[in-house]
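Run log, item B.
One chain of 109 residues. Sequence copied directly from the ordering sheet:
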Amino acid sequence: MPAWVYESSFFSITRTYEELSIVCQESNIPANVPANIRAERDWSCLKVEGLLDFGLTGILAGISRVLAENKVSIFAVSTYDTDYILVKERDLELSVRVLKDKGYEFKSP
């Protein structure tokens, strides 16, 4: 695992038999990424706040439905306690606006 991954305050590593996916802060990704590594840039992260007990259903589905209805693609990352929704930077303002219109609240941006 590249050392720069662990320098990020937020990172997620997922490994399957087919691939290894690393999500981290863009500022930690070196400019000269090797050719065999695909790096996609320009994402913003929305953190879903609150107690997300495994018994709760539909939270991520509700958010992703609102964004899909507005043609916003997402990349979701979850930990035991928290969901993170990544949207392209160009879609951040729209994402926040349409989610607020549906009653979702934001601490930031």
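Observations after the first pass:
- The mean pLDDT is 89.
- The longest strand covers residues 43-48.
Flagged for discussion on Thursday.
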